[in-house]
Amino acid sequence: MDTNIIYIIAFLGVLGLVFYFFMIRPQRRRQQEHDALMSQLKQGDSVITAGGIYGRVESVAQDSVVLKIESGATMKVAKSSIANKA
């Protein structure tokens, strides 16, 4: 009976490690990359939003960014909605 408990504990430990390396660690890396992108965002950068809108950064505030899109219109979007540089 004691060996069954050891196997269960070992299985749970391995399952925890698999969960960490395939779920938590990659998400942390993506979050760190996105945070670095947000801190380096400056006027003139070409970006794409999470909704697929391409634009050029006109101004950067604490929590928002003003983008100028191709038609010449400007739009204010949440800084967190910037997906990547275009």
How would you summarize what this structure contains?
The protein has 86 residues and is α+β, with helices and mostly antiparallel strands. 45% of the residues lie in helices and 29% in strands. The protein has one helix and five strands, in the order αβββββ.
Key features of this structure:
86 residues, alpha+beta, SH3 type barrels, five-stranded antiparallel β-sheet
Question: In words, what does this structure look like?
Answer:
This protein is α+β, with helices and mostly antiparallel strands and 86 residues long. The protein folds into two domains: 40 residues; 44 residues, SH3 type barrels (Roll). Strands 4-3-2-1-5 form a five-stranded antiparallel β-sheet, with helices on one face. Strand 3 and strand 4 form a beta hairpin.
Q: Percent helix among the residues?
A: 40-55%
* Structural class by secondary-structure content: alpha+beta
Name given to the CATH architecture of the largest domain? Roll
Q: What is the element string, with H for helices and E for strands?
A: HEEEEE
Q: If you average the pLDDT, what whole number results? A: 93
CATH class of the largest domain: Mainly Beta
Enumerate the strands of the largest sheet in spatial order, edge to edge or round the barrel: 4-3-2-1-5
Radius of gyration: 21 Å
Distance between the termini: 59 Å
| Helix count, DSSP H or I runs of 4 or more residues | 1
Count of all domains: 2
Percent of residues in β-strands: 25-35%
CATH topology name of the largest domain, in short, is: SH3 type barrels
Count all strands and give the number: 5
Strand count, sense and barrel status of the largest sheet are: 5 strands, antiparallel
What characteristic shape results from the CA principal axes?
Answer: rod-shaped
Low-confidence stretches: none
